[in-house]
Amino acid sequence: MDVIGNSPISLAERRLAWLDTRQRLLSRNVANADTPGFRPSDAVPFRQLLERDRGNAALVTTDARHIGPSGMAAFAVPDRRVAERTPNGNAVSLDQEAVRIAETDQAHALAMGLHRKYLGMFRMALGR
Residue 115's closest CA among 8, 5, 3, 20? Predict the structure, then answer.
């Protein structure tokens, strides 16, 4: 396995963990669709997590004339824009949540397929 975590397998595993977190947040939104004053939430986009991790990687300068890394600003979790609210203050739209859940399910199937294919390639290379 890749020690530094840049292999396709580790990327698929990280994506699956992120999708699991997102699915839990979306299911909590649906469960609280009738709770007065409840505001829906969503996970930070996976791309931002990857960019954040890439920004934390230490750069190596091999020459004194190289330019050093600049400080990166912390990524803020974007507020979710709510189109409508019910009179009791609830902002959950079941239609939007259903679309997000379907997108997450499709992304999960894709990540699982990639994970299985890469593991199958390793097994084939090992002669199993």
Answer: 8
